[in-house]
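Minutes, project check-in
Item: structure for the 320-residue chain
Input as provided by the requester:
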Amino acid sequence: MFAAYAARIDRDQPLNGLELGERPAPEPRPGWSTVTVKAASLNHHDLWTLRGVGFSEDQLPMILGCDAAGIDEDGNEVVIHSVIGQTGHGVGPREPRSLLTERYQGTFAERVTVPTWNLLPKPAGLTFEQAACLPTSWLTAYRMLFTNAGVRPGDSVLVQGAGGGVATAAIVLGKAAGLRVYATSRDEAKRKRAVELGATDAFEPGARLPHRVDAVIETVGAATWSHSIKSLRPGGTVVISGATSGDRPSHAELTRVFFLELKIVGSTMGTKDELAALLSFCTATGIRPVIDDVLPLDRAREGFERMAAGDLFGKIVLTG
């Protein structure tokens, strides 16, 4: 079957390891289901895999892709929860959790096999392309906001780095949940787009906000860390799920953290129940993932290049 996969690891030029071509089709295994992939979306996790982060050369070649929606063996339209081993279903209770592409072949292929427990019904109101955007970046944003930041309607949130998948999701979800959302971006067009999606206002990175916020959604890392900490009210929370600009800020702002009793919470992906809740939230409110572009799988390299350059707003989706 045709697939986009990591053939080698290159920490400095990750796209050098990306190959497009034929790979073996998944074989049946007890407790697992094979899904015909209708749509799959790109995540920065795929670039980190090509760099060898959380991944070793003895696992090559590895089909990339965490997210997908498709049709299972019984003809059901499904969304894949990409955290494998969360409860032991399909792998045994002692295997640590992992994302697709860390231990098991991913979704950038004609077919993928996952534990049957990991399948959720696709809501009829969502297209395959929309549904394929939800299991990683949108689920991450959902957990960051509603589980780990614990914000409520009327609270205020700063979303750093508008344009990325998680940041864009946080703006849309926050607006739909009745939050006051502020956003930052170096790009004027992305700031304008953030406001169109529901942000109360958008600023250049580091700008002074109208007031301190209850929570910060942080995925940028070193470049925005000091601003994130300084933007919080006393007792506020910064939730971090990524560090695309690096994980070693020049100013950790530790004095401010302890003096103002700030909370720093790490966040990774989400549970199957949270994904089910996210699907229901989209159905109930009518919100939909922001899709930058839809490309056929054989143009995956183009999508990777745009994601690596930050030349997007929302998600890039690959279709068969």
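Outcome recorded: The radius of gyration is 19 Å.
No further action items on this chain.
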